[in-house]
Amino acid sequence: MNRFIALSFFAFTFLFANLSFSQNNISGDIKDNSGKPIAGAVVSIESLKRNTTSNNNGQFKLENISNGNYNIAISHLGFKSINKAVTIKNKNVTLSLILEDDLLNLKTVVVTGTFDPRIGLESSTSISTLKSKDIKKSYPQGTASLLQNIPGTFTDASAGEVYTKVYTRGVSASAEDDMGWYYVSLQEDGLPVSLVQHSYYSPDLFHRTDLTTKRAEAIRGGSSAITALNAPGGIYNFISHGSRQDFGGEVQLSAGAQGDDNAILKADTNIGGPLGNNWYFNAGGHYRVDDGARDTDFTFSKGGQFKFNVIKEHDNGYIKFYGKFLNDKTNRYTGVAATNWDNPTPAFGQNFKNSSLLMPGFNATIPDGRNLDNTINFDPSQGVHAKDLALGFDFLQDLGNNWSIKNNIKFSAKDANWQTSISNAFVSLSNPLAYFISGAQFPIGQVVFKDAQSNNELARVNNSGILAGESFEYISGSLPNDAIMGTSAWYKDNEADEWMNQLTLRKKLENHDITTGLSLGFSDTSHYTQGSFAFVTYEPNPRLLDVTLENPNQPVLALSDENGVSNYGGLFFVNSRAKISQVATFLNDRWKVANKLHLDLGLRYETINHKGSKDRYAPFSQDGGLDGDATTAYDNSVSTPTGERDHFNYNYNYLSYSAGVNYKINDNTALFSRFSKGNKAPELNYYFNNFDNVAINKKGEIQKILQAELGVKLDSKNASFTGTAFWSQLKDIGIANFEFDGDNNSIFYTPIQFNSSRTIGFEWESVFSPVDYLNFRFNGVIQDPKAKDWKIYDAAGSVDTTDDTITDYSGNTLPFNPKLMFNLSTEFEKDKFSAFLKWQYMGKRQGNVANGFELDAYSIFNLGTGYKINKNLSANILVTNLFNSEGLANFFGANSFGANANGATPEFVATNPDASFVVFPVLRRRALLSINYSF
């Protein structure tokens, strides 16, 4: 009995000792090749669902690990992930780890354009990543400007932060200037920034980049057909910072000069850390005041945003709450006049460096056409006021037995209010439009132009002969260039309440990784546009004109109000509302055919419903106009609803698919290929723009996109390379032109023509690092973009259809797609000093499908230097467009009110060699000094 008790006591003691001492710790430090500690590296043991991150000193610790054999994974963006086998047996383990640079992030996990996160080398898509330090090397101008660094991505940011264009691989035809993100999805943390697009309402209105962004991932075509809502052309996903083990962050203060010594001031911050019990937080944002790269008499941009997230990590996943509040005012530049089609030269005293031709700021009270009892306070210095309040919830849960579920849901309330100029065309004083556009019934005789601010008379003209084709005559004084500017005091008010959700259910089998799920998007939006004419001098730094008709022995007739605003609400009127629902279900299988061969097969069925209405309208009819005063002509033509509405309720259903293959030759080399069929349903501009006081009696066409790609990915210690040959075809492209009818002073869109395009090309991304502190990067695209079948409707300058024609341009070069575009840079970083020099080359582009005008190639050089003052403090200088290139980014056609790029046909150019036209120059040199404090 005593022996039994003794043995039992010994066994219990032994077992207790084992249980007590088999719980061990794994700790260590993580450094880069140069011996610098790496903060924020993720250290995980997948079999235990345990992970942590390294602190600012590169140190980490995993506690209470039982005896056994484990595989520890260590990863960090910009470094190659490694796996370390560790055996624990009643002893703590200390590791010293070195991570090698991942030059093209091919050994880094990517999450965009895929349902199952994987390293870039094993992906069957063409994907690129911009790291936080890459983002810091870009001037804070806007999202499109930043994405110029993505290979194969065409961007036009010549107008500023908004009113930009972004597309790839020739999938571009409907990406017009007023909705340039038509085919691609701009995302934050995996969900779209906005579900809705229409004229002058694109997602770039509601997106700003600052220190809260950890990285940006970009997919060009390919799998975006099955992984994004109605965006087959690509995905640009901006990912925020995640969990941080120690409290810390970064503050950045920036100041600079641009253009003609215009200032920019910006403050950025991002902080994060633990809250206890595996809770973590991040918070930050920015505020900036920017006078702009071109000359205006008001602050071009001001405002900022605040973002946050709170994360709870647990053994089987995480939950995350996040949000954003954006309150920002910016503007966009209009074009500059040029002459000489073969070598464009600035005209009418303007220049390609500083001229903006935006109206000066003023305060006017204009009738609100929606309800004439209300008024609109119009001030063009307000520009585009964008507000976005977004709140979201994201979670990942391991359900056991290799099942997992992930759901990301976001609600946002958006408001975009435009108070700015539209168009800046030359209108001769001999053109009857210069007077009749005021809305006056017969503004013929002595017209007096006064400076609206000083009230000084600038010119008095006699226009009595203009209806007979004769020139005007000056009675006294003169106006610059004997003209006024064809421009509008343009007011837009857009609101949208949006709810979106992405649910995925994943099951991992021995040879299959299957994902299915549901994507939902709902938007309730309203859209109002009102345009009034404004009398403005046609010159750099335009002045507003108070205009009257002062014929002898007759009452003075006011053609404008005291601010120079005329034809209240008579140029544009669109009042509409819509509810959009987007529902998609998807199924994807990553099939391990062999140890090195994976097939990626995916289907997506999407249904989109557009339901809404658009008001019919007519000019307000009352003797003497709105105020009943016959001597004020500027309020005689206010457009108001008639009470009738044209309704639409259309469904768009389509099936998209994508099949990819990845063959991993070895740990550093892989081949991939993919074929995709995507679809693009119409955006709301189809209803808002194309049906003016007529029934919306048919739905738009779904564009079809076929894409194929074949690529290689190579990674080594000193060099990395990805190259992708691609073919893309876009069909059923609806094209309508913006036109002006001079006979009745109305603006209209021409009947839609359905066309197709084809592009073949090769895009590449490479980096060579001969030594640890020196990198050479080279990326770009060479392509052949063709307008395969293409017709343009010519309205001959009037609503009357009897003289209309249709011209066939099939086989021409697709406009605004360069045949060659690349970025070449060198980067140096050693000890406390860093520097880079980048050459951005934009090849020649056709300015329209008629190929009547070609935009020349141009180069832009950017330079940056940095110095680390101490452990926490650093200073950086960034100069963009170092040599003040005057390259032309865009073309808007002839310099006349209501003209468009398609009107500049080869025949027009040949018969009008001295005509002026409108171009958009790239923004001139900008220099910025940033002081960064990291802790």
UniProtKB/TrEMBL annotation:
It comes from the Bacteria. It is found in: Cell outer membrane. Its main location: membrane. InterPro entries: Beta-barrel_TonB (IPR000531), Beta-barrel_TonB_sf (IPR036942), CarboxyPept-like_regulatory (IPR008969), Plug_dom (IPR012910), Plug_dom_sf (IPR037066), TonB-dep_rcpt-like (IPR039426). It is a multi-pass membrane protein. Residues 330-882 form the TonB-dependent receptor-like beta-barrel domain. Residues 1-22 form the signal peptide. Residues 122-235 form the TonB-dependent receptor plug domain. Belongs to the TonB-dependent receptor family. This is TonB-dependent receptor. The lineage of its organism: Bacteria, Pseudomonadati, Bacteroidota, Flavobacteriia, Flavobacteriales.
